[in-house]
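User: I'm putting together notes for a lab meeting next week and I want to include a structural view of one of the chains we've been expressing. I don't have a solved structure, so I'd like a prediction I can at least talk through. The sequence is below, exactly as it appears in our construct file.
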Amino acid sequence: MTRATTIARRELTSFFFSPIAYVAMAVFLVACGFLFCDDFSPGQIAGMRNLFDWMVWLLVTIVPLLSMGLLAQEWSTGTIESLMTAPLNEADVVMGKFLGSFGFFLVMLSPTLLYVAVLALYARPRIDFGPIVSGYLGIILVGGLFTSIGLLCSSLTRSQIVAAVATAAVLFTITIAPWWASGKILSNAWLNVVNQAVFKRYTDFSRGVIDSGHVVFFVLSTAVFLFLTTKVLESRRWK
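Assistant: Thanks for the context. Below is the predicted structure for the 239-residue chain, given as structure tokens.
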């Protein structure tokens, strides 16, 4: 695990020298600022549910930009060879890359805590912190899942653009498409499928409900995509 944390620190540091990372963070925070205005409007219930709901849509476009170079850049520049010949195994590389990228996601998310402070200062009656805590838990779980998907897509290609498009396509398929389909007339079988999608599970968190089943879903799904990425690296290492 020590070797993975070393890679994670290097990866996290590299984000602060990446113009794309700063652009992605700026777009995310500016959009969140505008969305928070709706939650902070007079007469609204003191909370951040509107912001939390929209954060998922923002991450569908932001995470592909952050994750596209995690492994694709290593493949294209050839640095993956030196990385894999070091005393590291594939799991160390995958966990290090994931933790570094996920760490930057948490850094990107942290300024939104200022909105909680604003609500705590000005909201009347007093703010209920329960839905806010659960909302942050939900968005952190979603961020972890999205990052693991981006890492897998980045491991499959040398092109960062292809990795970004592939990640966005997968995230659209598991998030936006089921949400759109939920507004249509569906059979019970398809409705059950839609209810397993990311946004449907996440909305419980934004409402203040922490369902252990949803937590397990996000954690296990993230683990599956990290496992698949490890297997991709193992297969490509021996080609």
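A couple of points you could mention at the meeting. The chain has one domain: 2-237. The mean pLDDT is 84.

User: Perfect, that's what I needed.
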